Amino acid sequence: MKRNFLTVAVLALITACNSPKSIDNEMNRFVDELMGKMTLEEKIGQLNLPSIGFDVTGPILSKGVEEKIEKGLVGGVFNTYTPEAMRKLQELAITKSRLKIPLLFGYDVIHGHKTIFPIPLGLSSSWDTALIRKTARAAALEASADGLNWVFSPMVDIARDPRWGRVSEGAGEDEFLGSAVARAMVVGYQNGDIRDNSSVMACVKHFALYGAAEAGRDYNSVDMSVSKMFNHYLPPYRAAVDAGVATVMTSFNDINGIPATCNKWLLTDLLREQWGFKGVVATDYTAIAELENHGMGNRQEVAALSINAGADMDMVSEYFIDELPALVREGKVSEKTIDDACRRVLEAKYKLGLFEDPYRNVSTERAEREIMSEDKLSLSREAAIKSMVLLKNNGVLPLQKDKRVAFIGPLVKDKRNLIGNWSGAGDWKKAISVWEAIDSSTNSLYALGCNLTDDKALIDKLNPHDGQITLDSKSPQQLIDEAVQVARRADVVVAVLGEPFGMGGEAASRSNIDLLSNQKTLLRALRQTGKPIVLVLMNSRPLTLEWEDENMDAILETWYGGTMAGEAITDVLFGAAEPEGRLTMTFPRNVGQIPVYYNHKNTGRPFDENQKYTSKYLDVANTPLYSFGYGLSYTAFEISPVTLSGNIASVKVTNKGTRTGTETVQLYIRDLVGSSSRPIKQLKGFKKVTLKAGESADVAFEITTDLLSFYNAELKYVAEKGDFEVYIGNSSDTENKAKFTF
Ligand code: BGC
Known about the structure:
Elements: H1 5-18, H2 20-37, H3 40-45, E1 48-49, H4 65-70, E2 76-78, H5 83-96, E3 104-107, H6 120-124, H7 129-145, E4 150-151, H8 175-190, E5 203-207, H9 226-233, H10 235-242, E6 247-250, E7 254-255, E8 258-259, H11 264-274, E9 280-282, H12 290-293, H13 299-309, E10 314-315, H14 319-329, H15 335-351, H16 364-370, H17 374-387, E11 389-393, E12 405-408, H18 434-437, E13 445-447, H19 456-462, H20 476-488, E14 492-498, H21 517-528, E15 533-538, H22 546-551, E16 554-557, H23 565-573, E17 637-639, E18 643-645, E19 648-655, E20 661-671, E21 682-691, E22 696-702, H24 705-708, E23 710-711, E24 717-718, E25 723-729, E26 737-741
Parallel strand pairs: 1-10, 2-3, 3-4, 5-6, 6-9, 12-13, 12-14, 14-15, 15-16
Antiparallel strand pairs: 7-8, 11-16, 17-19, 18-19, 19-22, 20-21, 20-25, 23-24, 25-26
The structure holds beta-D-glucopyranose.
Beta-D-glucopyranose (BGC) binds next to loops.
């Protein structure tokens, strides 16, 4: 059909009106006009982000928030949700404040909002970015229906130190996988358009390098070479920025002496100028006030340092609203700096569509429809299954239905721990415990066996923060005796043990990452019965499990699997589902090996058992107990030697076992000669392949120049000519390799 001139002109006009440029122009006009009416105090008010409501993650509580909203001194709030709570506060902003600027509503939606998915470290173990994206999307649907427009996630801090409690919140130790997870989560939350009422703004955190806190002690300093930063720690933040993340949160730590929250190089030169980030930078909880403890100056000085460095929103400190007006008048902070920060906050609100509908179509009906809907629960179960890592199996798993199983341990009937830490809005009472999920026809037995811990000092630290650890009225010895009796009556024992959830997450570092001693005592007693033992673990971090590896028949790492964890665990134990997780963080043999990670350098004296003067310990091997990328299946896969054709590296994967299974095929590259010393291996690709018994599939990877590139000593991203090795296998231990020259 021929279009007449008018149709073409109208179409051109519509396209022009909808083009990003014209939307930007409209937004600029709108924001200019609004800012033209704002006083300095009101502009600074937009930079204020107090906490109001249920949760506290720092020592200070925000006060008088409602009055400040009425005065136009609040840009957004966090720690509250539900349609009613949101509406009440939004109404204050819309009806009582002079310029009626709507509020942002943020919250720590970390691994699901109401439907809880496995902790992020667990989710990353699925190596399934489509699944991870779906969990973020489901969280966005629930959170947005519950009055939120901003989630403080994804946390993408690379972590090589399992003593740090917050390893549970991220995707492990590797930058390539971490970047893929970061992208998936941003896309899941924002869904391409934050104006859509079912999307929320994502917030990548903690910028930057928080995961490298010295000695794994939370909030500790970070001192790092730029090469390590650019090659290993920064890529996931960058990936989130490239995926269009709307906001960034600064980290608590200092970086080579300058705290992130007032680090101009980090927040302006790198983030905005080099990476082109245009959104809002919020600080972490009271991070501006903490700059005083970092020794950066007094209230006025740290407020000025922080805004001048590029922080836009002040979370909880209220130093911005208290100090910035005078600092501007004294010329220590320019009006332009305030205008730029205020503009970014208003732009975020504009992009969310808040000026058109401050309530974003939130209603109790929508919340009821979205929250914990069937599809989300089944996604949670699928995610929990795919996150589990089978660390050992001598054939006892999957359990046979006709065997009598004794379920023993404080986590068999527990629900609270299933949803793990950072599950703020999750209702643990709705979680399905392992015991509830067991098919009643299996005639299973139960014993408590031990308390989660008998350590009173530890309980005193955890319980004031919702730890919920109780001590049974029976003595530890009575509990063990009972458990041993029960074990004797069974064919196989399933011991469900692990860390109380409060031992992971923020401010929960450990110097000893063994299973708690009372739990180990129980395991030793059960071992004496001679019955096969399956150890099912729930924990936040890699643990040191050498004894368990030697003495247990099977070990299944389930992390904290979320709302449907119980169902997922029994699915896997009884073989209705396959454990397909692979580790994303190395499990050391002992804490003395930390940091131990797969993509280390070779050193000038790599370990050689026939030589004294090589890099090693006298009392422990260099190798970890379980490596990055490791995990077993119920079936057995064979991977053929690597073949190279042009820039395609491929293998044939065959399921040699008797059941259908999924293998995670991993591509690693080693740059044999470089202008800087290069890691012995780096993950550069992965593909999951599901095969029936006897089936084979070809798995191919394209080796692009990007995969060979790295930041050299001048921080140039280059692929250097020379020899490379390409490895394809099912863990970072693989020696299945071929050589090529670039
Ligand atoms: C944490 C952040 C979190 C913030 C708000 C802080 O203590 O480090 O991850 O987003 O609190 O709750």
